[in-house]
Write a structure and sequence with these properties.
With 408 residues, this protein is α+β, with helices and mostly antiparallel strands. It has two domains: 109 residues, Sandwich (Immunoglobulin-like); 262 residues, Alpha/Beta hydrolase fold, catalytic domain (Rossmann fold). The protein is built from ten helices and 20 strands. α7 runs parallel beside α9. The longest helix is centred in the N-terminal third of the chain and has 23 residues. It is globular, with a radius of gyration of 24 Å. The N terminus is likely disordered.
């Protein structure tokens, strides 16, 4: 009995010592070390490792095949080992931006133990850091600054159309608690994402706080929905427990209705429970990839609901008539229903119909064909083409520019 008690005491002492080390710091390496010239040094203590590598979105890209077609992937670089078992790598000067990275140790992914800042993208975690050089640059815009802050809430609402309770993220602007009514931006995520994607990977609240403080955007409510219509909420936040998320994992069971059919449930809840300005001129919708496709389809279904529409690297959903053997422009011209729906959108005379995409995005050709269709009909829209592919670095830019244009 005494041996058992002694063992328990030793275990307790060890646990407390480990906890205190974690509390007061047991890792004195600085990684990443961001220098004034924009160079960044990464360090990892791995004395038994044979090879340590680094991959991140600040490195060059290579094209690889994926289920969605050719996509870009960040290259991998080697760290150099020092005599103390610390591996290091220093970048060239990086531009202001939010960047993500991870280590690869002897072929296995590893987060940086010296960096507590990270984001989840589907089932993958990466560390993040921000480069900022001057006020107003992208790094500054994505940072928390000494400006008035809005509030971010995780809100549950009833969706009669989907027959379930669902969760969304709602940003209310600085000063909302003091009264007044506000326009609403509905901000939609891409495939594999959820109601947390724009708030974490997209830095939506930081962008809105800073734009509003600079007078570049009107104070507005921003609603970040969950576009997976058979899911209650982000992984681990619903009644289906702590499962491992996967890309297109939400497609494993059939929902009772589509995002387009159920979207009025979101609008009705927001306009009933928040102090909103009503009417088309006070509503905007935008989204990336799948969310851009949802924005595209929702506005076709409800052409008089939104005065501002943003398609970011959008999947152009043609309904059930997509034929992979046919050119998309031909299908658009031949599909009478599609033509009537798009005509109704532009007959409602939206104040802004904005299309943005990177020039190496795998959806570039589809968006080009859609623009050719709009041009052939004389429909008015604005277009932005940037460098790069299907990446958050572009989508954060698109949100920034779109937010500056709406409700003005």
């Amino acid at each position: 009995m005494k041996k058992i008690i002694v063992s328990l005491v030793c275990l307790l002492v060890f646990t407390q010592a480990w906890s205190q080390q974690a509390l007061f710091g047991g890792n004195d390496l600085v990684s990443p070390e961001v220098k004034e010239d924009g160079t960044v040094t990464f360090r990892l203590f791995a004395p038994k490792a044979v090879r340590v590598q680094l991959t991140g979105d600040f490195l060059a890209k290579e094209k690889v095949d994926s289920p969605m077609g050719p996509v870009e992937r960040d290259l991998v670089v080697d760290l150099q080992e020092g005599n103390d078992g610390v591996w290091t790598y220093t970048t060239g000067s990086l531009s202001p931006e939010l960047y993500s990275y991870k280590f690869i140790v002897d072929g296995r992914d590893q987060l940086d133990p010296s960096n507590v800042y990270m984001c989840r993208d589907i089932a993958t975690y990466t560390n993040i850091f921000i480069i900022e050089k001057e006020a107003g640059d992208k790094g500054d815009l994505y940072s928390v600054n000494k400006v008035p802050h809005g509030s971010v809430s995780k809100v549950w609402y009833e969706s009669p159309t989907l027959k379930m309770s669902r969760r969304m993220t709602v940003y209310t602007p600085p000063g909302y608690e003091k009264g007044g009514r506000y326009p609403v931006l509905y901000l939609l995520h891409g495939a594999g994402g959820d109601e947390e994607a724009w708030a974490t990977l997209g830095r939506a609240s930081q962008i809105m706080d800073n734009l509003i403080a600079m007078g570049k955007a009107k104070p507005m409510i921003v609603v970040m929905t969950n576009g997976n219509t058979n899911s209650e909420a982000a992984p681990g936040e619903g009644s289906n427990g702590m499962y491992k998320p996967s890309f297109r994992g939400h497609a494993t069971s059939k929902p009772v209705a589509s995002m387009e059919e159920s979207f009025p449930d979101v609008v009705n809840y927001i306009e009933k429970n928040y102090r909103t300005l009503k009417g088309k001129k006070n509503r905007a919708i935008c989204g990336l990839s799948m969310g851009g496709g949802h924005s595209f389809s929702i506005t076709k279904r409800y052409p008089t609901m939104f005065d501002y529409v943003g398609l970011f690297s959008a999947a152009i959903f043609m309904g059930g008539n997509n034929d992979p053997q046919k050119n998309m422009l031909e299908q658009m011209n031949e599909d009478a229903t599609f033509g009537k729906e798009v005509a109704a959108v532009f007959a409602a005379n939206p104040k802004l119909y904005w299309i943005a995409i990177g020039n190496t995005d795998f959806l570039f050709d589809a968006n080009t064909n859609y623009r050719k269709y709009l041009d052939s009909k004389g429909y008015r829209y604005e277009y932005l083409e940037t460098d790069g592919g299907h990446i958050w670095r572009n989508w954060r830019i698109y949100l920034t520019l779109f937010a500056e244009k709406i409700f003005q």
